[in-house]
């Protein structure tokens, strides 16, 4: 069977039950092999047989469930998020107007002002709220019930329709002058329908606002311009969309530009930074015949590249496939609120049924008569009391609080799942280049031969390298300037691609470059051979410096550690979290970096797909894994990990694949995120306890048939107010330093 994949952005998802609804509905369709839904990234990956199903059918099924399909283009998707937020705001404003009118009428009645037409106004407001701004909730509840899923939408509609039914029963009692039915207070029951629907819309808007603002914060980190390539046609350079580039095209890549395609260099020589692809921090020399990979950065010279692979065969497309696979295999997480609802909703239904049975069958067994009106009143009262209005706001408000605290520390928390899972993390996998290290080559060792001052060695090297655009050359010049060493003037500058530089310094010949280059020029290297071996064993690049064919010494260049890398690793260890280094770099460099920061578990020369597989293997062992990275090669692992943490200065695809974004370069922010996540999760638990507290007491009492609907409205206001106060209590107090209680 041929299996195709359809990946779609889904709008309108609000809880773990939404993912279950989508997976169940699509999974039952003939020809659908597998369905995987990510609530955090609002995406669905569908594997299907194209001979039985077409993409349009699958997307139409999603729409019939009440969800929207967002444009796959990133810019348009962000715009659609804003449009969805604007729609929800309009719904909230309309529901707010209806609620305000209902509140004024009820206040007037409580003050003794009563008019015969009040009940008709309340009925109109209830119907307008439930079937107006609340219509989308009704639609989603209907589709959930069709698939035997009990979620917060179903719980809301049970309460709302209980309010409507109670109001209509009371209205019928007044019209028919039936004293038994007239026991049902019309304005109060209709008022409940208005209030709980409006509160539900408010909680939905709050949740959407949190998700959208997190996405917009991420958007500001990304380059949203469409990718183009400069193709040479008829001797002219023409910029065309990357989708139109074909194998065999000649593409010009200037210094500082990203190489847009996979191909082979046909003209020019340059050094290329492939760190975002391979993890190697030091540039790779390219000359005619050298392969290049799309996404790497051309640093020094101009190149002409013949395109060899496009579409599905290109490196970036392969990484995209790895990401899809990682998303599909990522462990699912049921949010805490949905886990509670899984048992709470059936519990409310059981209590309502108990109320009916107690006052019908139970009453008949005890007194010989069934109290039908009281049974109905009790059943409706249970549904009315059963909806916790603060429920939908418990997690978003904790997110707002935690998100604000995180933002002050340069951390963007993109999802509620991040809070829930962070507290369980027991392993953190770190990429090397650009994550543990700065990602920029620096001179770390000066080794002059006997009798040569270090400053003389550095000055000559910097003078020769001063006109160069090579990253290693810039590192030498930067070190000289930092040390206050002024480079001498040079003449007859000649760069030999892949080898080094030949120049005249104050009338004397000078050479700077690889030791192989110096040896070819007749320079004796014996005095430094032993030191060279020891430097190269630690992953450093060695550059030789000679004057008049005599060796002056060597420079060791390496990608240095971030200032707080060792501290971050130490803090994680103190929390009982195991740090791991996983990199595409060579073993010598990987071991040296790991030893420098205190990491014992090391994986090196790992390809992008293998990084995600390594994460999966650890998850299969029962570990909760976080991945920290910044490059294209990290994206599959970031997606696969229970928590993906991207460095904000990294690549777009890494940021998009993550759950948390570190805006700056500070690695101890990983530890800060962990502590904030734990505190926010505790705050979420507190909010849920408070949200259910009033209802947990009210539902059993409602079974008696003595609970007036007005108490439901009091419980709503009290629970929402309590959750609000709890969420932001202490915000103005000094932050408490995380201590031993955080673990």
SSE topology sketch:
Elements: E1 4-11, H1 16-27, E2 32-38, E3 43-48, H2 55-64, E4 68-70, H3 74-110, H4 118-131, H5 135-146, H6 152-175, H7 186-219, E5 228-233, E6 236-241, E7 250-253, E8 262-267, E9 270-273, H8 275-278, E10 284-286, E11 291-292, E12 297-298, E13 303-309, H9 315-329, H10 336-367, H11 372-386, H12 391-408, E14 411-413, H13 416-422, E15 427-430, H14 432-436, E16 437-448, H15 454-465, H16 471-482, E17 490-496, E18 500-505, E19 508-513, H17 515-520, H18 529-537, E20 541-547, E21 550-561, H19 565-574, E22 578-582, H20 587-597, E23 601-603, H21 608-620, E24 625-629, H22 635-640, E25 643-647, H23 652-656, E26 660-662, H24 669-702, H25 709-728
Parallel strand pairs: 15-22, 15-24, 22-23, 24-25, 25-26
Antiparallel strand pairs: 1-3, 1-4, 2-3, 5-6, 5-7, 7-13, 8-11, 8-13, 9-10, 9-12, 14-26, 16-21, 17-18, 18-19, 19-20, 20-21
Helix pairs in contact: 3-4, 3-7, 4-6, 4-7, 5-6, 6-7, 6-11, 7-12, 7-25, 9-21, 10-11, 10-24, 11-24, 12-24, 12-25, 13-24, 15-16, 24-25
Q: What would your notes on this structure say?
A:
With 743 residues, this protein is an alpha+beta fold. Strands 14-26-25-24-15-22-23 form a 7-stranded mixed sheet, with helices on both faces. It has a 6-stranded antiparallel sheet with strand order 6-5-7-13-8-11, with no helix packed on it. A 6-stranded antiparallel sheet has the order 16-21-20-19-18-17, sandwiched between helices. α6 (152-175) runs antiparallel to α11 (372-386). Mean pLDDT is 83; it is low at 220-226 and 731-743.
């Amino acid at each position: 069977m041929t299996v195709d994949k359809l990946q779609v952005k889904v709008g309108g998802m609000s809880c773990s039950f939404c993912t279950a609804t989508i997976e169940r509905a699509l999974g039952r369709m003939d020809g659908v092999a597998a369905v995987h839904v990510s609530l955090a990234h609002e995406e669905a990956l569908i594997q299907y047989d194209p001979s039985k199903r077409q993409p349009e059918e699958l997307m139409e099924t999603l729409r019939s469930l009440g969800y929207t399909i967002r444009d796959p283009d990133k810019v348009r998707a962000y715009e659609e998020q804003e449009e969805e937020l604007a729609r929800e705001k309009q719904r909230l404003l309309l529901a707010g107007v209806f609620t305000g009118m209902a509140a004024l009428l009820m206040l007037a009645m409580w003050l003794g002002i009563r008019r015969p037409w009040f009940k008709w106004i309340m009925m109109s407001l209830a119907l307008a709220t439930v079937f107006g701004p609340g219509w989308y909730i009704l639609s989603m509840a209907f589709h959930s019930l069709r698939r035997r899923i009990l979620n917060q939408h179903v719980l809301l509609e049970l309460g709302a329709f209980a309010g409507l039914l109670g109001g209509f029963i009371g209205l019928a009692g007044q019209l028919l002058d039936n004293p038994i039915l007239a026991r049902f207070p019309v304005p109060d029951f209709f008022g409940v329908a208005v209030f709980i629907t409006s509160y539900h819309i408010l909680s939905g808007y709050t949740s959407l606002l949190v998700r959208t603002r997190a996405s917009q914060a991420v958007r500001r980190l990304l380059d949203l311009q469409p990718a183009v390539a400069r193709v040479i046609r008829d001797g002219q350079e023409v910029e065309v969309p990357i989708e139109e580039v074909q194998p065999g095209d000649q593409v010009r890549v200037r210094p500082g530009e990203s190489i847009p395609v996979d191909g082979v260099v046909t003209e020019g020589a340059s050094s290329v930074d492939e760190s975002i692809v391979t993890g190697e921090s030091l540039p790779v020399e390219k000359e005619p015949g050298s392969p290049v990979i799309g996404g790497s950065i051309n640093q020094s010279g101009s190149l002409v590249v013949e395109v060899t692979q496009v579409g599905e065969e290109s490196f970036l497309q392969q990484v995209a496939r790895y990401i899809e696979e990682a998303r599909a295999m990522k462990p699912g997480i049921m949010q805490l609120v949905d886990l509670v609802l899984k048992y709470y909703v059936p519990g409310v239904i059981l209590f309502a049924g108990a109320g009916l049975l107690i006052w019908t069958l139970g009453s008949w067994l005890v007194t010989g008569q069934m109290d039908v009106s009281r049974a109905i009143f009790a059943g409706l009262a249970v549904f009315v009391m059963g909806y916790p209005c603060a429920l939908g706001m418990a997690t978003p408000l904790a997110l707002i609080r935690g998100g604000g605290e995180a933002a002050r520390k340069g951390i963007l928390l993109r999802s509620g799942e991040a809070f829930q899972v962070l507290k369980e993390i027991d392993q953190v996998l770190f990429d090397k280049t650009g994550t543990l290290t700065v990602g920029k080559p620096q001179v770390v060792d000066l080794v002059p031969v006997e009798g040569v001052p270090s400053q003389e060695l550095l000055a000559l090297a910097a003078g020769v390298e001063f006109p160069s655009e090579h990253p290693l050359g810039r590192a030498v010049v930067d070190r000289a300037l930092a040390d206050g060493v002024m480079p001498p003037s040079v003449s007859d500058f000649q760069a030999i691609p892949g080898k080094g530089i030949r120049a005249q310094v104050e009338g004397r010949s000078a050479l700077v470059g690889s030791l192989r280059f110096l040896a070819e020029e007749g320079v004796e290297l014996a005095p430094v051979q032993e030191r060279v071996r020891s430097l190269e064993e630690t992953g450093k690049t060695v550059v030789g410096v000679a004057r008049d064919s005599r060796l002056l010494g060597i420079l060791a260049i390496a990608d240095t550690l971030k200032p707080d890398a060792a501290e971050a690793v130490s803090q994680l260890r103190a929390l009982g979290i195991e740090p791991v280094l996983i990199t595409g770099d060579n073993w010598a460099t990987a071991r040296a970096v790991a030893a420098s920061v205190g990491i014992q578990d090391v994986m090196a020369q790992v390809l992008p797909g293998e990084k995600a597989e390594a994460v999966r293997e650890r998850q299969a062992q029962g570990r909760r894994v976080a991945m920290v990275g910044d490059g294209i090669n990290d994206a599959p692992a970031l997606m696969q990990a229970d928590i993906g943490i991207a460095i904000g200065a990294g690549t777009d695809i890494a940021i998009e694949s993550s759950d948390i974004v570190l805006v700056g370069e500070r690695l101890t922010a990983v530890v800060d995120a962990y502590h904030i996540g734990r505190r926010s999760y505790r705050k979420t638990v507190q909010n849920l306890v408070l949200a259910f507290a009033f209802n947990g007491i009210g539902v059993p009492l409602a079974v008696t048939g003595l609970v007036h609907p007005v108490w439901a409205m009091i419980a709503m206001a009290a629970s929402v107010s309590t959750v609000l106060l709890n969420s932001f209590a202490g915000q103005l107090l000094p932050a408490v330093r995380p201590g031993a209680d955080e673990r």
